[in-house]
Amino acid sequence: MKNILNYLLVAFLVTLCLTLGRVLHQYIPVLPPSLYGMLLFALLLSFGHATQLMPDKLFVKPMATIMRFISFVFVPVSVGLMQYGDLILESGGKILTVGLTTTFSVITLAAWLSQKFLVNVTHD
Amino acid sequence: MIEVVLYSGLSLIVFLFAYFIQHKYRLAILNPLLLTITILISLFAVFNISYQDYMQGAEYLNYLLEPAVVLLGYPLYKQIHLLKTQWQKISLICLFASLCALTVSTILAKLLGLETWLIASMVSMNITTAVAMSTSVELGGISSITAVMVLVGGLSGSIFGVMWLGFVGLIKIPNKDNLLTTPDNQQKVLGMAIGCASHALGTATIAKSFPVAAAYSSTALILCAIFTALIAPIYVPFLLTL
Fold it and tell me: Which of chain B's residues have a Cβ under 8 Å away from the Cβ of A17?
């Protein structure tokens, strides 16, 4: 029963943050509403932790389960790929070239910059 | 109503099966989302089911896409101590990584002669799926192509990222039989690189063997998502006009 209440608390907070994110987006349309919601959710959790109104233990179990299966919500939209079979046959090689070149360029640049800026710096 | 139960239920069963397979064999290539897409598309091809038929029953799952992005606030909150002490350096690295991803993908796709809507669908492939999709739609792209490109970015980094960084000499792993002993400095470099390029998929892959890297990686994936969502709507149309 306690677990179910914790899941319901997460659902309520996410809905609240998303709604506030939509309101914020109307006035400051810089980020998508969901990203505003994400930042608000992080702030809300920090506030809850600092004030002990919502201690971490309430979220550990539901969040671990949700984060494990979160990619399920992307299934329907990803299956939409089946509509682009011709495109893949026609340009699949080029698309893959762009994908791999970009990914390895970013990996290399981020690692090089991290070596310059972060190595030998402790955060404790 | 029967379509909702049939197609949403089928999606869930196939996803849980794919999750079980990945959990058993622990190979990045057996990513549950990739496996689920492959199985479902194969099934629909065999039984001659169109995407429109499928979406009549599964479209309600799309209402969960926005809450999924909001939930990413949790890993951000968990890593907030990293940001407090090193936020300037980590932010700068993520900003340059986001600019690099947008520049390389747009310019290369343009040079290869790909159409504008396809480029718009691809440029946000190095950030987490939910934000990548909304950024892609804002640019005039197609979210299902974006979702697959995100998998390309995630899987390639997950499978070859560590090997590649060792090959170019940016990290050194002293004991390959016990990855947990990898020095923190090496893990910082690895974590930032994987988080910037291969988002949550890469982070999940390295988490078990490189715990310090995973902390940096999850911070980087969130920051890169924010920077890309902010920059792409202005920067990509500019690059396309060059």
Answer: 70, 73
